[in-house]
Write a structure and sequence with these properties.
This protein has about 425 residues and is of the alpha/beta class. The chain contains 14 helices and 18 strands. A 10-stranded mixed beta sheet has the order 1-10-9-8-7-6-5-2-3-4, with helices on both faces. Strands 11, 12, 13, 14, 15, 16, 17 and 18 form an 8-stranded mixed beta sheet that branches.
């Protein structure tokens, strides 16, 4: 099992699907949602959430008897009549709707279970939630036989135990075991939401306040995951990003939250996530951390488009409402697993990258208190090493090089 990662935008920011100047509704992805005949609010919430996170076009398949309810409430969603497994299969087979959501308000019965299986047989990215899971309580092996790596299951604890039975261990261990058994991503909801992949990847989301315990909140989350998947975000990271956004919105709103408030709050929280493709007239703020130990400084070799192959201190984006010191502690822990002393501010650099990104980087210094540096984010770092300050590796990341050029003696401050 991989080391558990604390969920934050630092994990998936570079994968987040912000549109660019050439984007249009089809390039931003299309989605298909199955709506039910009675609990119509569930899939309506999901459809709105998918739209809010960026899906270009959403189609909702609904029983004819409920069609007017859906059509009147969802002005910008395409509503299609769907009264049988055959009708659903026809819609699923349409290649213009490559990502699917089934479960919210679906209802229970053999026909509904058959619709879940029909969706899975299309081998497209699919979010399976709520009733779509409950329909397989006594026949989970049938469901598991059809699941594939582009699926995500989103159970709460009750649905999880009914579907997977008793699994020993803490929540993280149970989610990992379930993901391996299902062969896909499992997002186990709760005050602490755990996202586990079939390969053993693990992200823990801890920003959910108690106000999220409200009807429809899970339907919104399912729609948000769908919306990100339609835009080609990998399904595991789409689940992690949606969970963080979901909690962040609830944090902002606070007491009195209802599911509709989560949908309405998506746009505001999306503004917190910088994107290389999102033009901005203002620099972003980064924090770099010089971690000292026995006369040496910790640097990591970067991986990815932003500075790949260069060496830098631990660090990352300053999140909304975060202090410099808290950001430094969080980034060091998330990237290296180390515990550090209270960080102190040293200097700031003005960093304009060839890619067009512009950062003001705040450099902090601290001491390593315990632990050995571990690559906690292998998608961003190739390895950590300790260096004497007069024998730093080359090339250095731009902001790190700019700081080194200031000539500050890190062991006299």
């Amino acid at each position: 099992m991989s080391a558990a990662l604390e969920n934050s935008p630092a994990l998936w920011r570079e994968m987040f699907p912000f549109p660019d100047a050439d984007s249009h509704k089809y390039s931003r992805g299309t989605a298909l949602i199955r709506g039910g005949a009675v609990m119509t609010g569930a899939s309506r919430l999901a459809a709105r959430a998918a739209q809010r996170v960026g899906t270009g076009l959403v189609t909702l398949a609904a029983p004819t008897v409920a069609l007017p309810i859906y059509a009147e409430a969802l002005e910008s969603v395409i509503v299609r009549p769907c009264d049988s497994v055959k009708d659903w299969q026809t819609l699923v087979d349409d290649a213009r709707r490559p990502a699917l959501l089934i479960g919210p308000g679906l209802g229970l019965g053999d026909a509904q279970a058959d619709e879940v299986l029909a969706a899975l047989q299309a081998k497209r990215p699919i979010v399976i939630d709520a009733d779509a899971l409950t329909n397989f309580v006594d026949k989970s092996d049938i469901l598991f036989a059809q699941l594939h790596a582009d699926c995500v299951l989103t159970p709460h604890e009750g649905e999880f135990s009914r579907l997977f039975g008793e699994i020993e261990g803490d929540k993280a261990a149970r989610a990992i075991a379930a993901a391996k058994r299902a062969g896909c991503t499992v997002l186990l909801k709760g005050a602490e939401t755990v996202i586990a992949s079939e390969d053993g990847d693990l992200v823990i989301n801890r920003n959910a306040p108690p106000w999220l315990a409200t009807g429809g909140a899970g339907d919104v989350l399912a729609g948000m995951i769908l919306g990100l998947v339609t835009q080609k975000m990998p399904i595991f990271w789409a689940a992690a990003a949606a969970a963080w956004l979901h909690g962040r919105i609830a944090e902002y709103h606070g007491v009195g939250l209802i599911a509709e408030d989560i949908v309405d709050g998506i746009a505001e929280v999306l503004r917190e996530i910088p994107s290389a493709t999102l033009t901005t007239s203002r620099p972003q703020v980064g924090v770099g951390v010089a971690v000292r130990l026995r006369g040496k400084i910790l640097l990591g070799k970067r991986k990815g488009e932003h500075g790949g192959g260069t060496w830098s201190y631990p660090g990352g984006h300053l999140e909304f409402g975060e202090t410099w010191e808290d950001c430094a502690r969080r980034e060091v822990r998330e990237e290296t697993g180390l515990e550090i002393s209270t960080p102190r501010f040293l200097a700031a650099t003005n960093d304009v990258y060839p890619s067009g990104k512009h950062y003001v980087t705040l450099f902090m210094v601290c001491d390593c208190l315990s632990g050995e540096p571990v690559v906690m984010e292998p998608e961003k770092c190739l390895g950590w090493e300790w260096f004497e300050t007069n024998q730093l590796p080359e090339p250095l990341f731009l902001s790190t090089q700019n700081f080194v050029n200031l000539g500050i003696d890190l062991f006299s401050v």
